[in-house]
Amino acid sequence: MEYLLQIYGDETIWARMPAEESDRIAGAYMAFTKALRDAGAYVDGNRLQSTSTATKVRVTPDGKTEVLDGPYADTKEQLGGYYVIEAPDLDAAIQWAARCPASSYGTVEVRPVFELSVPA
Fold first, then answer.
1. Domains in the chain: how many in total?
2. Which end of the chain, N or C, is surrounded by fewer C-beta atoms within 10 Å?
3. Which pLDDT score is estimated for 74?
């Protein structure tokens, strides 16, 4: 089963972080990604740009498309990246989330992916 590991943290920390620290954390993410790949659990993943680059799209009840620029919520943690992994069950996905570098400075949310059956 696929699981989405959503990585949340305070994105403002990165701007103030010394280069040595950000290099250390980047190395930890590379090692984590390699471990996922080596285990055959890696499906996809990426870091996201800051919330200041976000755009929200919604359609009103009358069918009009609205485009809103971000950021949207004044929160302590923002979604900064994600991994899609393959794991046999939730317990295994939680074990991977605990190994993710973000679990030591932010939060990693684990959610099962609802697999759609799309006709050909």
1. 1
2. C
3. 64
CB 108 within 8 A of CB 5: yes
Report the alpha-carbon angle 13-113-78, nearest 5. Answer: 15
Q: The CATH number of the domain where 48 resides is what?
A: 3.30.70.1060
Rg of the chain taking only CA atoms, in angstroms? 17
For residue 30, the enclosing domain spans 2-112
The candidate with the shortest Cα–Cα distance to 93, out of 78, 105, 83, 106, is: 83
Q: How far apart are CA 47 and CA 51, in angstroms?
A: 12
Return the pLDDT at 54.
83
Alpha-carbon dihedral sign for residues 38, 40, 41, 42: positive
Smallest Cα–Cα separation from 89: which of 97, 101, 80? 97
The residue type at 44? D
pLDDT at 45: 97
Which residue positions in the chain have pLDDT lower than 50? none
Indicate whether 118 belongs to any domain. Answer: no
- What DSSP line would sit under 62-87, residue for residue? TS-EEEEES-----S-EEEEEEEEE-
pTM of structure: 0.85
